[in-house]
Specification:
By secondary structure, the protein is of the alpha+beta class. It contains 16 helices and six strands. A six-stranded antiparallel barrel has the order 1-2-5-4-3-6. A hairpin with a 4-residue loop joins β4 and β5. The chain starts with a helix and ends in a 5-residue tail after the last helix.
Length: 428
């Protein structure tokens, strides 16, 4: 993958995140408030269950790869389903319902819910090890500030109207944490699973958890209160802000860092203001127009600066010797809990103070039907290599993991990978 292809991939990923945010703005402004009279937990169950029905084929098709997931990835799936799917959706629905009912101002809900990127950036650093440049964090802060100004640029922010001690405020804060952390753990999942299966798993597990909730609190029996209009709206949700939006979202998250994704999600207030102008003819103020331009510029800059540099140290361990048998000996490493995409990477490897250019394989060894492995290939022969440590600096991901029909096909592919290593200097 060339540098141009990498940038193109990042732009496509960011665009997908912003498209999903557009659907979410449609939901928050025009659809979800119409469910005000229904129990929030019941709404959460129905939108996820209907979405899961649509996504079930992807679960079936992706099952061979799903079976290879480790405890770490399953933990991430449960986190995303509980926090992003059930708790987050339930909390933000409760918060907006309270605002619709006049119990608290919309400003209180919005100002707290928009702390989501802050939670996501902190957790991306702690959980995924996403250490990005200072310029990235500067533009991320600019984007958050512009989003706030865009949201309150017309009405202004009257501090006296804010009520941070109302339960709706806590609902909004919990939703911000739930969705922010869900972005981070969602990235962990799509690093090791295709976005289609990820979406299906999330909706399936969230449906099950929501069903347990409404069965225990009696909301299940209120399904009879749902009229034709509500079913039509639920159908619209499935193919816009629900399953379709998450499908598009995970497609984008696969291609960019979690830190970049959470800033691109701020397209939500931008698209909401634009829709308000197009549909309700509410003209933007000069300040909102400036904030919109600044926000768009911030999106471009965080995508540009959002490339993650991964470095780690691992110990060399004894392997099965299969690479040596076919004339391509690899160095087996003990660290397999990396939060990066499965694939083959160009790397710089330091062994005993000497720098080697090499190829790093990370992921399931589908050739032999085994779970994840971490293997390094360098052209130079290194004596007495066992029990030593290797410092790895990862460059570009050049391809996905492939299944080979035999040793000759594998050798041919590695030779192609080595040609790309010769032509590349991005690692160095």
């Amino acid at each position: 993958m060339s540098d141009f292809s990498f940038k193109k991939k990042s732009l496509i990923g960011a665009g997908a995140i912003m498209l999903a945010a557009l659907f979410w703005s449609l939901d928050g402004v025009f659809i979800r408030p119409k469910f005000y009279s229904l129990p929030p937990a019941l709404v959460v169950f129905l939108e996820h269950f209907l979405g899961f029905i649509v996504l079930t084929p992807f679960l079936i098709l992706g099952w061979p790869k799903i079976k290879l997931l480790r405890k770490k990835e399953w933990g991430a799936i449960f986190w995303v389903s509980i926090f992003g799917g059930l708790l987050g959706t339930l909390m933000i629905t409760k918060a907006f319902f309270a605002a619709v009912g006049g119990e608290v101002t919309f400003a209180t809900v919005v100002i707290l819910q928009k702390l989501q990127p802050v939670f996501a950036l902190i957790m991306a650093r702690l959980v995924l090890g996403e250490k990005l440049s200072r310029r990235f964090y500067f533009w991320a802060a600019v984007a958050v500030a512009a989003a706030y100004f865009l949201a309150f640029g017309k009405t202004g922010l009257i501090l006296g109207q804010l009520n941070f001690f109302h339960q709706a405020a806590w609902f909004a804060l919990l939703a911000a944490f739930a969705f922010g952390s869900s972005t981070v753990f969602g990235k962990r999942i799509v690093n090791h699973l295709d976005f289609k299966s990820t979406t299906a798993l999330r909706f399936g597990l969230t449906s099950f958890l929501a069903f347990l909730l409404i069965s225990s609190n009696g909301d299940l029996f209120k399904i009879n209160e749902i009229g034709v209009l509500y079913w039509e709206l639920l159908g619209i949700i499935v193919f816009t802000s629900g399953a379709a939006a998450m499908f598009i979202y995970y497609f984008g998250l696969k291609r960019i860092t979690a830190s970049t994704a959470t800033i691109c999600e701020l397209a939500w207030p931008l698209s909401a203001v634009i829709l308000d102008y197009l549909l309700n003819k509410n003209v933007l103020t000069g300040g909102q127009i400036i904030a919109s331009v600044v926000l768009l510029l911030s999106f471009f800059m965080v995508v540009k600066e959002g490339g993650r540099k991964v470095e780690f140290e691992a110990k060399i361990i004894k392997g099965m010797g299969r690479g040596e048998k076919i004339g391509l000996p690899t160095i087996n490493l003990d660290r397999i809990n990396l939060d990066i995409d499965y694939g083959v990477y160009l790397v710089k490897a330091e062994i005993d103070g000497t720098i080697h250019g090499g190829l790093l394989h990370f992921g399931p060894k589908e050739t032999f039907g085994e779970p994840a492995s971490l293997e390094l290939f360098v052209r130079e022969y290194i004596l007495n290599i066992m029990q030593k440590s290797v410092k790895i600096k990862i460059g570009r991901r050049i391809r996905e993991i492939k299944k080979f029909s035999g040793p000759n096909e594998l050798k041919e592919q590695i030779n192609k990978d080595l040609e790309e290593l010769k032509a590349d200097n991005s690692v160095f």
